[in-house]
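hi! just following up on the protien thing from before. the input was this:
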Amino acid sequence: MRPGEVLAVAGYEFRFDGVTEQDGPNYRAQTGAFDVYRDGRAVAHLAPEKRRYQGGQVMTEAGIDASLGRDLYVVLGEPLGDTAWAVRVHVKPLMRWLWLGCVLIALGAVIAVGDRRYRRPLPVRADVSAHATGS
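and the predicted 3d structure came back as:
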């Protein structure tokens, strides 16, 4: 994408506004600016980063906008010339519901562990002292 271009994905429009350079505590970052629209209304502003650390490692930080109904992800790839960038854009519907399902499964497991009906009864041992005395 080049600055000013718009990409339509799953009913959302992602407008790329360009990349700026920023210094972090131990890295230099190229930060992208993306405005996201749906039906002409602004939904989110995403700022993914491509970080170059002092040791030479390169790390990407995704721009994420999470909500109960969907998650929006934008990742900066490599620069493709003067101002163009390779960009990955994802719209993931109902991702929060997936995590909520995991929490519900864990809660069900805790409830099941606490239920006495599911515990194995201990074997009954005969009282050895009563038999030894002959009573």
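Strands lie at 6-9, 12-23, 27-38, 41-46, 49-53, 58-61, 63-66, 70-79, 85-93.
Residues 95-114 form the longest helix (20 residues).
cheers
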